[in-house]
Write a structure and sequence with these properties.
It contains nine helices and 17 strands. By secondary structure, the protein is an alpha/beta fold. Strands 3, 4, 5, 8, 9, 16 and 17 form a seven-stranded mixed beta sheet that branches. A six-stranded parallel beta sheet has the order 12-11-10-13-14-15. Helix 3 (about 135-150) packs across helix 4 (about 170-180) and helix 3 (about 135-150) packs across helix 8.
Amino acid sequence: MPSFTVFRGSKEGPKQDQTSKPDQLTGTQVFVKVTASGLCGTDLHYLAADVVLGHEGVGVVQDVGPDVQNLKKGDRVGWGYVHGACGACEQCIKGEDVFCAQRRLYGFDDTEQGSFAHGAVWPESHLHPIPDSMTDEVAAPLQCAGATVFTPLHDVRADETVGVIGVGGLGHLAIQFAAKMGCRVVVLSGSESKKDDAHRLGATEFIAMNKRDENTKPTPIDRLLVTTSALPDWDVIMPWMAPKGTIYPLTVSQDALKIPAMPLLLSGVAVQGSLVATRTVHREMLRFAGLHGIAPWTETFPMTVEGIQKATDALNNGKVRFRAVLLPQ
């Protein structure tokens, strides 16, 4: 069996290992040569786990199984956090495969495959075509970060006001998507340090939360994307929401979501959970990003043990501006 290099988590930190590709692929299996991988905050949770790391993968198809229908050798594809579903349950039939009870998720399933690797084997159903206009370095972070922020925006109207809390790995992409969709974009950030960045990305209004006072009143927000690791002060945020507005908490947090009840009730504000994109929305996101030139701001690192350690340390310390991308050596 041919083998290829993978990088997995361990209690001692990331380590290099080998895994095998089957001599003969079966069913709809596709073997992909990895050309770039994004580093996501979710990866930090698995650095000490015995799994192959990474879930923002981009690569080139090298081989396909006998039942593959659309992909062929040489095609550029990407994959993200969800890499499998049953295809037959109610959620799958409705196109909501990310909520399938048998969904296969990074860190939980198929832990011998990942994007911190020189290759990976995935089902055709969860590999997404990469637009020709998009480089691998640009495409990789879109597989999770892009999919995460595009999901609550994909059906937005151009006359809506979108609020984005945080100008970081998720937030800087959310600003770009919302701006290219024609929306007014209100950015809420801890200080003025990223004000220029926010306006370059497409922000219409910018509020530095450490400078706000009782007279600070943004345009009422129809959709609010919370992209920061810490939850905001809801007593401050709720009066800024438009009637019938929706709040989308997007980052992973174990903290309780405590929102004052009366502003929620009196203004009909909704709080909507959101995971990553369904396959349909994921591919729509890639096409939209390719058409409108939406691109993450990236820093590249070599895909080596040392490079992965350096990248994860930088991300842990808040030093990445704004997405790290690992490139196989």
